[in-house]
Predict the structure.
Amino acid sequence: MNDLVKHYGVGRASALDKLLGRSERVVHALDGVSFDISQNETFGVVGESGCGKTTLARAVLLLTPPTSGTIKFEGTDITQLPKQDVRKLRSRMQIIFQDPISSLDPRMRVRDIVAEPLVATGEKNRSEILEKARSILEKVGLSSDTMNRFPHQFSGGQRQRIGIARALVCDPEFLVLDEPTSALDASIQAQVLNLLRRLEKDLRLTSIFISHNINVVCYMSDRIAVMYAGEIVETAPTRDLLNKPLHPYTQTLLASIPRTDPSQRRPEEKIVGEQPSPVNPPKGCRFHPRCPHAFEKCRSDKPDQVTIAANRWVACHMFAG
């Protein structure tokens, strides 16, 4: 993925927008997001609510068409493919949604929910479809006698397992997980996360794991990107990020993790204020209004990506030059 941008028009420009030369109000959901994912890697994306994570999840699969930028899958820019070719890719690129209640059709039985992707991709043999649905349900921990039941007859964790089964029934190579456990209780979260880790290993999946919970992202990911206000501010292997966070925003995220061992606690560093408006993001570094280390250049110039080591870079003026 290179220089991915997604802007949403939200109506007429205000008087201030017109004064600044803007013809309409625009939400800057994603601004220049770039990263690569290796085969069989789990790439984590973490950030506060509203930073653009879900837009990224949907844009990667073209569920939300990007405004500009490229998304390459096995060397092919899928943003340039005709719709019929994108449709053919759907079985190889799947998504697990955040809310298992709203993402499952309450009028459909489990067998039909899980089988739907197979039907959509042209599978016609009914007995084979049902056998594949039964097999994948068993892999996610649900017995075959659940196939004739409806979503409301299951717990939240079981519904999310149904969503996982639906995403995996076509044997995809690439998976996007958009906050897959945030709607679940803590004990159920752990069960689902362990299930996902096992499935990713057994099925040799390449995936993007998105969450606002940095603990969960660190547990699931080989490498992590930290997002803030529509931009990625730091990318690093998980161990490196945990041991030595570089960007001030990453440092505050990690400092917020509760720790029972006093010797492992980081100095408390609170973030003052709120995320900037995506309609009118600040100039320069978007984190500068809340950054305890900001200086004049941060307020005027957007920081470049500074390569620190292999697979590691940070967008911060403190590391430039």
Notes: The longest strand covers residues 2-12.
